[in-house]
Design goal:
globular; mainly alpha; 8 helices
């Protein structure tokens, strides 16, 4: 893969993964935790997200073909799930669900949903890595390169999560709720865009 391809993949995945938009979700699921535990949640969520994306890099296209699922249908379903997440953020339902989470909830329980998926490894990210690492056109070295780009982007997520952990000390829970609602609206908009694109692709609309 030439440097221009690397740069293209990096910026494409950086925009799709959007490390800023996931910060409010991270702050919500880790509110009240010690810094060390919050770090463990972040690392666990990123590890789960990486595992999901890596699996789709190497096996995603074949997986969809075996199940006879068009990529447009997968994108539509994933965008709908993302929309429900954004809607729960806007209405405050997500905070209610997190508030009802058991104080003894494990690190894994806090990390997987809604942080690792669909916030980080959502339909858009999964489809992007499937397209970038087309199993029919890309050789193994190029797929490994895409995997490295994903790892690099997720490393940026870790930095933003840690910066968010410092910010929460100043904005408090009210600030988190306001920020979550604003970003929830953005996530809804991204999801609607994904659904429109998927519907157009499904019906061959221009």
């Amino acid at each position: 893969m030439v440097p221009s391809d690397f740069v293209y993949e990096f910026f494409t995945l950086f925009v799709i993964l959007d490390p800023i938009a996931t910060v409010p979700v991270f702050l919500a699921v880790t509110y009240g935790l010690q810094w060390r535990d919050a770090l463990r949640v972040a690392l666990t969520a990123l590890a789960v997200a990486f595992g999901i994306l890596a699996a789709f890099i190497f096996l995603g296209l074949q997986f969809l073909k075996v199940l006879d699922i068009p990529t447009s249908s997968f994108q539509l379903a994933g965008s709908f799930i993302l929309f429900t997440l954004g809607l729960s953020m806007v209405t405050g339902k997500m905070h209610e669900e997190i508030a009802n989470m058991s104080p003894n909830a494990s690190i894994l329980e806090r990390a997987v949903y809604p942080l690792a998926m669909p916030s980080i490894a959502g339909a858009g990210a999964i489809l992007t890595v499937v397209m970038l690492s087309d199993n029919n056109a890309r050789v193994m070295s190029e797929q490994l390169q895409t995997t490295f780009v994903v790892l690099l982007c997720l490393s940026i997520h870790l930095l933003t999560f840690m910066a968010g952990g410092l910010i929460v000390r100043y904005i408090g829970m009210i600030g988190i709720q306001i920020t979550t609602r604003v970003f929830g609206l953005m996530i809804c908009s991204i999801a609607v865009t994904g659904m429109v694109i998927a519907i157009k692709a499904s019906f061959g609309l221009g």
